[in-house]
Write a structure and sequence with these properties.
Residues 131-230 form the HIRAN domain. GO terms for molecular function: hydrolase activity, acting on acid anhydrides, in phosphorus-containing anhydrides; nucleic acid binding; zinc ion binding. It comes from Natronobacillus azotifigens. InterPro entries: HIRAN (IPR014905). Keywords: Hydrolase, Metal-binding. By secondary structure, the protein is α+β, with helices and mostly antiparallel strands. Helix content is 19%, strand content 30%. The protein has helices at residues 46-51, 74-77, 88-94, 103-110, 146-149, 189-200, 236-241; strands at residues 7-13, 20-29, 32-37, 67-69, 119-122, 126-128, 131-137, 159-164, 173-178, 183-186, 204-212, 222-229, 249-250. The strands form 3 sheets. The protein has a 5-stranded antiparallel beta sheet. A 5-stranded mixed beta sheet has the order 11-12-7-6-13, with helices on one face. Strand 1 and strand 2 (20-29) form a beta hairpin. The longest helix has 12 residues, at 189-200. The N and C termini lie close together (10 Å).
Amino acid sequence: MRKRPFELWLIWQNVETRQRYHIGRLLHKDGVYIFSYETKGYRRKLEEAMDNGYRPHLAFPDTNRTYTSNNLFGPFARRLPDSRRPDYSSVLRELGLSQECTEMDVLRATGGILATDSYEFVAPILVENNLFDLDFFVAGWRYYKGDQVIEHLQVGDTVEFSLDPENDHDHRAVVVMSVNGEKLGFIPAFYSGWMFEVIQKKCNYQAKVWAIQPQAVAHRKVCISVAGELNHSFDIQRLLNDKEELRLVMC
């Protein structure tokens, strides 16, 4: 598949329920940064988030407007590590990035997480012809066996998924397990609908540990990379038109 486009999804977490919502998208195209809210659909998106306490960012008050800038928007740029830091090169190496990386690369690698709010950037699902790929950090890490087995995980390890349709919080929940069967957590809710369908339709895919960050916050300790091929029974257009599903990046 070709190089992932410079698009990131903005996620907001309700600190009381711990539920995360896909509320916006940030795109870097032809040298211009573009931000807009995710106004299509309901499940795990802006509308449901606002029904559960979310209010638009002060810098982007109009949820129907498309914002543009020649530079990375200030509220997002402040989420990056300061490039003037003496140890900035070391920071990039720890993130698996080179000196030639862009601000979008860094934002994707760090998630742009701050201790003062509950925003986070994540990568989209990329679909090209019948091939797809995505990567995500395991959700719910603190509640299962992740910290007990993290020392035994290695980059490149295969992980396994299982459906959890009886889950009280998400009927399309997907469990993430180590190759030895330990429950590590879940696929984040804003990806679970896609992978639930992939597994149900018996599409071929591979899921592996992409990165391990033992000292990171709980929901960014282990990153999983998934790549696969959709079969003839997988109806992309139905998913794109389903009000409950996330939009994809179609190439």
